[in-house]
Amino acid sequence: MERTSSTAAGTAPAASPPPRVPWRRRLYTWVIVGIVLGGALGAAAPGFAASLEPLGSSFVSLIKMVIAPIIFCTVVAGIGSLDGLRKVGRIGGKALLYFEVVTTVALILGLVVMNVLKPGAGLHADPDKIQVSGAVSEYIGEGESQRWYEVITHMIPDSVVGALADGEILQVLFFAVLFGIALNLLGPTGKPIAAGVDKLAQVFFKIVKLVMYAAPVGAFGAMAYTVGEYGTEALTNLLKLILIFYGTSLFFVLVVLGAICWRNGVNVLKLLRYMKDELLIVLGTSSSESVLPNVMRKLEHLGASKQVVGLTVPTGYSFNLDGTAIYLTLAALFVAQAQDVSLSLGAQLGLVGILLLTSKGAAGVTGSGFIVLAATLSSLGTVPVAGIMLIFGIDKFMSECRALTNVVGNSVASIVVARSEGQFDDARARRVLDGELPYIAADETADAPAVPAPAPRAGHGERPAAAPGLVPGAGVA
């Protein structure tokens, strides 16, 4: 029997969109309130505000608690439900190629900006006189002891249970891919298992929904701690580098990612508006992991197939760190400029090559950015590693921008890969981004009609059905 689409001519008119949720019941409203109040408290009572750090860290920990199981379930369900491994390889290959190309652009952009603006020139820092703190000394030690191949060997877990318990994203991802491939090879026998894993993922998504009600409190605590602990005076000496980093990241999102979105029929400004809840939570918590589950659900609601999102987003959180790539280039060249170390064009291109590999390990571990930076400078051998102490005090103020750029980059990556596979509903995406089909959690409009899948595009297979339970709505109430 032929499927009837609500968009076809002559059919019943489309149902009117659900009423909009009042602003006072929207999540992003209270996240903004939390950020503003936290900043104000940090400025007014820094001592007390700094003691509120557990509010922010506990919220992030609650989210991280389910990140590893969600990645495992979504990757396994995505691979296990596909008709063949050739499709898995094609989606994964496209995603990795995209990651490498866009990450390279981000690294080169940072290289160009630093050579033009030279914010570190004139500091004349003496590496022999730089006092290295205990924390930075530990990062330097770990970075100097790393070898180039450790990014690859670290992916292989000693224990699957240990990887899940420790939240080792790369290791969980590696095992999930192997598990999903093995499940796919079982053929029809493996389909019920894949369906069961998918149902288990829905449980973890429900947990995330419950935790997200604490997002305003987490954002309040994290912002109060940041301002109370570091104060505004921590920004004065290196404000130029901070502004350059924010400006470069904004240029990357609006111009580079904006051009990619335009080429794929999506307006980047509308995409940012659609993702505003998640971006505000990232701004408040400085953690891109805190919104990974919600980003995946929203991309599915936007029109990307569940299989593509389930493979691309978790992989991107380890291999597509655009904001981190920009930061590492800026930080490495700033440290060199501040210590009057001149790097030739060849040395700078070598730096980009090293960062293409080492930046893949800069996810999911506290202090990993400094470890990667130390490892990179150690590999160059011409820049004193102790110089990273110069930017230690402002790293916290740049972490929000890193995380924001990473989230947007992975959202765009999923759209590009899904569209190249013919598994992206362009018409639905336009309606979602125009506000006609706003996102809402499934249990809040249980009786809402499901949106039919689009007709197959020429030259591609049929797009998989939308994720169960994703229906039109208006944001988290």
Fold topology:
Layout: H1 27-44, H2 46-50, H3 53-80, H4 85-117, H5 134-145, H6 150-153, H7 160-166, H8 169-185, H9 191-212, H10 215-230, H11 239-263, H12 268-274, H13 276-285, H14 292-302, H15 306-319, H16 322-338, H17 345-358, H18 368-380, H19 395-420, H20 426-433, E1 439-440, E2 471-472
Antiparallel strand pairs: 1-2
Helix pairs in contact: 1-10, 1-13, 3-8, 3-9, 3-10, 3-15, 4-11, 4-15, 4-16, 4-17, 4-19, 5-18, 10-13, 11-16, 11-19, 13-19, 14-15, 14-19, 15-19, 16-17, 16-18, 16-19, 17-18
Strand tally is 2
Radius of gyration: 23 Å
**DSSP strand content:** under 5%
Strand line-up across the major sheet: 1-2
Structure report:
Mean pLDDT is 76; it is low at 1-15 and 442-477. The longest helix is centred in the first third of the chain and has 33 residues, at 85-117. The chain has 20 helices and two strands. Helix 3 packs across helix 15 and helix 4 (85-117) packs parallel to helix 16 (322-338). By secondary structure, the chain is an all-alpha fold. Helix content is 64%, strand content 1%. It has a two-stranded antiparallel sheet.
